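Hi R.,

As promised on Friday, here is the backbone we talked about, encoded as structure tokens. Could you run it through your design pipeline when you get a chance and send me back a sequence?
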């Protein structure tokens, strides 16, 4: 048993002895008690005679107990130290990029993990690894990652540029809307559309003039962002494109304008009037949906939509009657 204790002690980390030291005092005390028993033999009485216990047997028991406790203490301390070392190895950042390594760093989410992801992106990676690393940095959403994310807006690959803009949009920082706005001028329509949509989520109304320009130049995804962010002047500018842009696209922005409680009621009433002047079946269906889904909340606007819907429905019925009468 003493040999087993020596083996444990040989393989244990030096810190293990610090953990074991505290428990050795008890075993040592029992060892010394056993040694004292050599000079103070005990006697036991059986019937009319007496018998003296062998002192050497007590010494052997004490030595054996001391060796057992020493071995157990050292083994326990060494196991605890090994567990601590394994935990430290688990937390160590992976050295080589892989999908599993990126997922591990994303889950950790500390500064060291973020810096490792940024370093990998700075070095350049295969397409799948780069897109996943960009996604991970977007999840972590730290302002310190803005420079490396912004650098990927110029990547030759469309998917990487889109991933960079999506990651940027997750970061809460005043620089983000400006960084996103660059995407409105990208050479690829997919990037332009994604940037326009993300700007609406960023919530910066100063982006509306750029969105209006992009919308006029064919970035139809800007309609929703204009409807979310635009003010009364934006309603006027947006409505100037009615009849020039596809109606189904225009209705995306108009619905969002009508939902808002911060937009002046006069602007919402102007939207209803402009759509009624257009007078198509699609407009009538839109008004019906507005009433059914309670899109507009202000009573004057709701009443205006009801009146416009009734007039359009009556005009449609009158037209249908005229067509019937015109048949021979």
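Update: got your reply. Pasting your designed sequence below so it's all in one thread:
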């Amino acid at each position: 048993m003493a040999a087993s204790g020596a083996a444990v002690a040989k393989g244990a980390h030096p810190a293990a002895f610090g953990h074991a030291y505290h428990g050795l005092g008890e075993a040592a005390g029992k060892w010394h008690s056993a040694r004292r028993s050599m000079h103070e033999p005990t006697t036991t009485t059986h019937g009319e005679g007496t018998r003296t216990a062998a002192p050497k047997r007590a010494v052997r028991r004490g030595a054996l107990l001391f060796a057992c406790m020493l071995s157990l203490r050292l083994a326990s301390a060494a196991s605890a130290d090994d567990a601590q070392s394994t935990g430290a190895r688990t937390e160590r950042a992976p050295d080589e990029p892989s999908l599993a390594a990126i997922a591990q760093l994303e889950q950790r989410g500390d500064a060291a993990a973020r810096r490792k992801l940024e370093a990998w992106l700075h070095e350049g990676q295969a397409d799948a690894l780069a897109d996943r690393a960009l996604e991970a940095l977007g999840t972590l959403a730290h302002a310190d990652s803005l420079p490396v994310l912004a650098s990927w807006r110029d990547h030759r690959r469309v998917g990487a540029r889109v991933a960079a803009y999506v990651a940027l949009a997750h970061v809460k920082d005043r620089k983000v809307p400006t960084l996103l706005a660059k995407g409105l001028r990208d050479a690829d329509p997919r990037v332009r559309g994604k940037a326009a949509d993300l700007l609406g989520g960023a919530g910066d109304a100063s982006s509306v003039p750029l969105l209006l320009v992009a919308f006029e130049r064919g970035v139809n995804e800007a309609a929703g962002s204009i409807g979310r962010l635009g003010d009364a002047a934006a309603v006027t500018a947006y409505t100037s494109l009615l009849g020039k842009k596809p109606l189904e696209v225009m209705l995306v922005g108009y619905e969002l304008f009508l939902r808002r409680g911060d937009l002046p009621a006069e602007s919402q009433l102007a939207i209803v009037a402009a759509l009624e002047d257009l007078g198509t079946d699609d407009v009538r269906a839109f008004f019906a949906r507005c009433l059914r889904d309670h899109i507009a909340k202000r009573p004057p606007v709701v009443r205006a939509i009801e009146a416009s819907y009734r007039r359009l429905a009556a005009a449609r019925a009158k037209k249908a009657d005229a067509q019937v009468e015109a048949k021979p």
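One thing I noticed while checking it: The longest strand covers residues 43-46.

Thanks again,
M.
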